Amino acid sequence: MKRITLCMLAVLLLSPFAWAARTPLNVISQDPYVSALVIEADSGKTLFEANADAKVYPASVLKLMDLYVILDRIEQGALKLDDMVQVTPEASKTGGSQVYLDPKEQFPVEDLIYALMVQSANDAAVALATHIGGSKEGFIALMNQKAQALGMKNSRFNSVHGLPPSDGQEPDVTTARDLAILCRELAKRPEALKYTGTQSKGFREDKFIMRNHNKLLTQVAGCDGFKTGYYEAAGFSIAATAKKGGVRIITLVMGSKDRKVRDAKAMELLAKGFAIVPPKPELAGAAAKPATPATTAGAANATFDTSAPASAEGSAPQDGAAPAAKSEKSGWGTFFIGLGVGFLVFLGFFVVAGFLMKRRSGGVRSKYKNRD
Active-site residue numbers? Predict the structure, then answer.
């Protein structure tokens, strides 16, 4: 704990010198924002846009591209969540938001992914990038390749963390429309939402508690992502998503002058999206069905929509009513069949008994006749 405190103090003392070496950028932030975009995740349909193709600085929202590259490598089998990542001296010297990595430390890939997405840790970004790409430059090349492959035509990444550019370096540039493409791809991956939707997480054996910068996670029902970003020239930006009633909406608000305004506009635009797209109860209800043996293995990574409207939540009892009625009808049928069978058995018994009595009576009369 003492070492972490000393590291934090050193960062604060050295930060003026570090920021002095940054390339000066014109402030682009506006009120309420530079650009905004709302889309439906499933179809990609644009529901609202305002200057969506304006070039902006993504700041830490850029880390969503880090996440996409990392998850892609895991899917390909080139990387595992339990692979150990050795912290480099370069990573440990990275400023801004961080988890205060030390070159003597190493962590599993998954721990650093949580640090990347929950704490928005720049040092974790550099550590992961170096481990995966061999260097920051190698990883940046992967980021740009993926961006082009996805059709993010107006994006160019020059860092792995989204910090303001160093002296002589170009800034990271993207657009709300390009980021919507990336967010839509991430929304298809439950594992991505697992990381972006985490509100707090312990790091370094819970000695350091990380807290997500995305306040919408606690303010918007069904919100499970994605990422916030800020530095002075870029302004406050957010890529936000929420799901309810079987519908997922993605919203981008880029370059706000004020954090509270950014968050308020993001919530307003999410609500606008849900107002435009009607609920899909059949999709919302599907997530509520109990897992079958075939799907139980993936239950830990499943994303369940707990914010579905009452009509969707009520679909399960309604679906269950039909079997109950059928069972009741079946019970009455069984009763009447049993009654009929009982009557026939009784009737048969009565006939047989009468026959036997008649036969016995005839035998007695025959006996006495013989004797007389």
Answer: 60, 63, 120
